[in-house]
Amino acid sequence: TRRICENCNQKCLATLYCEYCIRNYLKANFLNWTSGNNEIDNLIRNCQLETLMPNKIIEWIPYNNLKNIKYLTKGGCSKIYTANWIGGGYEEWDSKTQQLERIKRYGIQNLVSHVILKELENVENANQRWFEEAKSHLTMSNKQTAIVNCYGITQNPSNGNYMLVMIACDMNLREYLRQNHNQLTWKERIKIAYEIIRSLYFIHKENSIHRDLHSGNILYSNHNDGCHISDLGFCGPADKPLTSIYGNLPYIAPEVISEKGYTLKSDIYSIAMLMWEISFGQPPFMNYEHD
């Protein structure tokens, strides 16, 4: 049963905070920030108005709040960086002061959060397709712990490219299996498969298709000993239609290769390939050429 908030008299979900009070707080702050892009602003504001938890709030993050930015790798249509976010994201709601509180630890001021920056290349003039994908990712990250947590968006001032600011996980599933497969029990392997299937269930429930599920896009976190799906919506070029074939070939369903397009079922095929990899500790078709 839902409780009645003492402040706004709305029926809210949680006992320690009220999602309606949080949304009103964020709404009152709309005029105090801007990305300089109306579409980005509206995207973030819409996500904030759907906020369910204080630690799942999407923000516009000024680039100068990010320090020690280092290039990590490149994948697909994006470049990946590591960075330190000064102050970090919101963590809890103070019912007494009716304010959101950022991450705090006793004796530490301006706590630094280690984050991943995902720079989306060639989207300075981002089209509506890109914004629909961004909305899908941010909205689901906003609601579900099964999806890799995304804190918000920033912009690289040197080239104008937008960057997703995401939680830093420890490694991808491929690397995790390489390091730990011989020690994993079947119970642990089934748990990994269950977490991935559960994550995909939430994606499909939002009427979305991942289209690029593979062990490099499943991230493992020591913090909660869990696996989370990443790269939702940004796994392929923003300007390519859904019928275009891109991704990691061993995980792509045969009907997609036959140019019949991506469907919910093609994601299920990718899950089957992941289950093979979790079972045997090796990527599917690893002894075959993929060109």
TrEMBL record:
<dbReference type="InterPro" id="IPR000719">
    <property type="entry name" value="Prot_kinase_dom"/>
</dbReference>
<dbReference type="GO" id="GO:0005524">
    <property type="term" value="F:ATP binding"/>
</dbReference>
<dbReference type="GO" id="GO:0004674">
    <property type="term" value="F:protein serine/threonine kinase activity"/>
</dbReference>
<keyword id="KW-0067">ATP-binding</keyword>
<protein>
    <submittedName>
        <fullName>Kinase-like protein</fullName>
    </submittedName>
</protein>
<dbReference type="GO" id="GO:0005634">
    <property type="term" value="C:nucleus"/>
</dbReference>
<keyword id="KW-0547">Nucleotide-binding</keyword>
<feature type="domain" description="Protein kinase">
    <location>
        <begin position="66"/>
        <end position="291"/>
    </location>
</feature>
<dbReference type="InterPro" id="IPR011009">
    <property type="entry name" value="Kinase-like_dom_sf"/>
</dbReference>
<dbReference type="Pfam" id="PF00069">
    <property type="entry name" value="Pkinase"/>
</dbReference>
<keyword id="KW-0808">Transferase</keyword>
<keyword id="KW-0723">Serine/threonine-protein kinase</keyword>
<keyword id="KW-0418">Kinase</keyword>
